[in-house]
Design brief:
mainly alpha, 61% helix, elongated
């Protein structure tokens, strides 16, 4: 038939010289591979920033430890390491798909003062592990950045497998050094998430008058002093008044 599609395609091929059309270009790497490549390329700037922060912080803290401000500098530096670890967990979650629980915050005493706060901050295991993570990552960041950047131009067909192997090491570091310190912190996080972030309120205190009445069937003797023996306290004095016959006094004759 003159209007058939194959006839029209043959006429078009004869007019253009018989060349076949190529398919549209497509990316040779998938979305997950590009995320892993981006993580490997970001390792170098992030690791340089973390290494410089930890080095300057430890050097200044140890140098000033002979003075009054040395130990507070170390405590504040550990708080900064916690913030850096939070940024690294977010980067691993976004680019590597690694889900690591957030460590529980440091619970300082409400009225403990300066020295209990200092001691609690200095013995924080999460902050010290975050500092170790930032300190040991610099050589690995240099290796991953160099290998990944060279493979983009030289060995890009093997880059998906190479990027997966390199990012497996990153996943192990994140899970081992940036995770909560022990099972107790994980248990606390599970309890807080199960209760919606709120601890249950304790039940109201039971009045001794009502408890004594319910158990023995007899009411305790009334006393005008709330601290007397057998009387429950001022709360029951306000909520439960004695009957009128208890307050009658014999008249003098």
């Amino acid at each position: 038939m003159p209007g058939a599609p194959h006839v029209r395609q043959a006429a078009e091929a004869a007019r253009t010289g018989g060349d076949d059309r190529l398919p549209p270009p497509r990316a040779p790497l998938g979305a997950r591979t590009w995320k892993e490549i981006a993580h490997l390329l970001l390792n170098l700037p992030m690791d340089i920033a973390g290494f410089l922060y930890v080095s300057v912080w430890v050097y200044c803290g140890l140098l000033l430890s002979v003075t009054v401000v040395g130990l507070p500098v170390l405590a504040l530096g550990l708080a900064g390491c916690r913030l850096f670890g939070r940024a690294e967990r977010a980067r691993a979650r976004l680019l590597l798909g690694v889900r690591v629980e957030e460590p529980t915050p440091i619970r300082h005493r409400v009225h403990g003062g300066f020295f209990p706060w200092l001691w609690t901050s200095l013995k924080d295991p999460v902050g010290w592990r975050h500092a170790l993570y930032s300190f040991v990552r610099l050589p690995w960041g240099i290796v991953t950045f160099t290998v990944c950047l060279a493979s983009l131009f030289v060995a890009w067909p093997a880059l998906p497998w190479l990027a997966r192997g390199l990012t497996h090491v990153d996943r192990v570091m994140v899970r081992s050094l940036l995770s909560p310190s022990d099972e107790l912190e994980r248990r606390i996080a599970e309890l807080e998430s199960g209760l919606g972030g709120r601890w249950p309120t304790p039940p109201p205190p039971i009045c001794a008058v009502s408890s004594a009445t319910s158990t023995t069937g007899r009411r305790p003797a009334w006393s005008p002093w709330p601290w007397a023996s057998g009387w429950p306290g001022r709360s029951c004095w306000r909520t439960r008044r004695p009957p009128p016959e208890w307050s009658t006094r014999p008249t003098a004759r």
